[in-house]
UniProtKB/TrEMBL annotation:
It comes from Stentor coeruleus. This is Acyltransferase 3 domain-containing protein. It comes from the Eukaryota. The keyword Nucleotidyltransferase does not apply. Signal peptide: none annotated. Keywords: Membrane, Transmembrane, Transmembrane helix. The chain crosses the membrane at residues 111-134, 179-203, 223-243, 255-280, 329-350, 357-377, 407-426, 447-469, 498-516, 528-549, 569-586.
Amino acid sequence: MFQYSGIELNNLGNFKDCNKLDYARYVVIVLAQIVVQVYCGPKVCTASDYQSLMAIEPQMQLRSSFDTTKKLTELNLQSENLDLESSGPLVLFPKEYQDDHYKDYDDSAKVMIAFMSIISFLVVVASIAEFFLPKRLKDIVIMKALLCFSLPSNLKKLLTTRSQERLGQKDTLEILNAVRVLSIAWVIFGHVCIFAFEIPIIINIGSAFASIKEPEYILAYGGYYAVDTFFWLSGLLMAYLFIIEIEKKPQNYLFTALLAYVHRFLRITPVYMFCLLFFWRMQKYLGNGPAYILIDEHFNADCSDYWYTNLIYLNNFIPDWKSSGCLGVSWYLANDMQFFILSPIVLILYIKVHKLIGWLAVLSACICGIVSGGAMAHHFDLNVSTFAPSNGSNQFNYYYVKPYCRIPPYALGLACGMILYSYRKYQEKGTIYDPIAYFIAKTLKNIFVRCGMFFFGLALINVLIFIQYDTYHHPGDDNSYHHWSKDANYAFYALERFGYGLGISCIFLPLLLGYFKPLADFLSYSAWSFIARLNFVIYLIHLSVMQIIWKSQKTVWVFDMYGNVSQTISFFVFVSICALPIVLAIEMPAANLEKLIFARGTPKKSPLNEDFVINETLMSRINKDLKFRN
């Protein structure tokens, strides 16, 4: 029995073999969110017995855990849902806990299973119909709706590469496929390193905090900028594609804008809501292990009260001007939708009234981001380090998820979209659409200017990332991270989003205009496109999948760079596999249905690949442009 215990702090022992013993049971003593002591103890021992044991044996090895718990509390990593400081360590018996809480599906889980069964049935029936129905029956409206769920048809679209489409000259926008894939990989790597101090059980908990200050972890805390890349992509595509559509039908610009809003909501929301509801109602049933306890308390705890805020894309403000924790990564979608709502207004004024309005809007948005970032940092005394105790939850709630702080990369993306459209307009028609945009594009014809711009962008991004090493490397004896002055911290918060957006613009604008062809060819390689098409769902589900795997661990994890990289690769592959059925059964059918609804009554156009083709018309593209962002 004793050999199945975790002899040292955070050693998980042998969960499976301990529970096989008739006279023993596995017990977890939770000292902090990721600090536990595990025993395989006599079955007759109760939770109060273990509480008493800890109270009367302060000098035993368990004593060392209290120092770690205190350190976690100082670093703001202790769970808000576990008030261990006042109530003492929490004693749980995982097998009994899981039998009591997760053995039987509740009603909402049964509804979710029924819904997935219906979707699966539609996919099977549609796939059979695709092969055996005659063409005349396939043209019936109800059959067209059913065939939206056809697995062979959707799989063919998903696997079609740009080289197979052969829709003319290769578009430089295809470089965005690689940007999206590399960015989501960066997001996952950052989450592996940062959430290691909140979710999994780490055997080297004492040294893990010290290791985060080493140089190899610079890219981990630089991963926060990957989402800014998505914002930049979003702004770029919004401006470029929306201008194309408005210029095609200049008299119908109000209807075009209204239709863009409707399309956007219908295109994103179904798969978004599916992922939210699935993990909210099913996550607790999907894992098993010694640490698979308190799942509802740790993950998606806000969904019961605030799920509707995700549906209306205000979850980054509700409740109390903070942020809902329902599907943790969804704050990005709220910001992106809020930016999208404002964009058509700005772009219509840019197109219809005066080109200067667009540039003033970009400038104003950047100034807003700079001022807001600095003001939030000053008001809440924010520190650059993620682990600084002074940040508390304020850094996330009042700075990280707020659109007025995050808007500069999106605004600079809009500017790049305006430049790209003006450049291509001049190439096609020989007319100057926007003098400012044309001037910038013309300036980049000079090899020294574009090379200087490219390397300036690289240098700027690297400065933003590597300069943070200074504060992480000097946490101080009390882990307060006061190596930087307060003014330096505030200035960094003010300028970092604008600086990163400017750096990304300087790097990718020359590529979008057709320069640096070898690099553009590499980024446009067709192999990127498949994963890029899964990108949105990968983003939606990756953190929830990581939570399930981490909480299901049977053995402990050693926190080091090798393990972090290995887990990043494993998570990336596994999450991509998990995303595939969601894309094929939920996202693509919803997109097909939306397209079918809005295609009725309109003249039939020449067939194009209906998903992910760069040269499509805007109304197909503007609804899927999130795929370029996430």
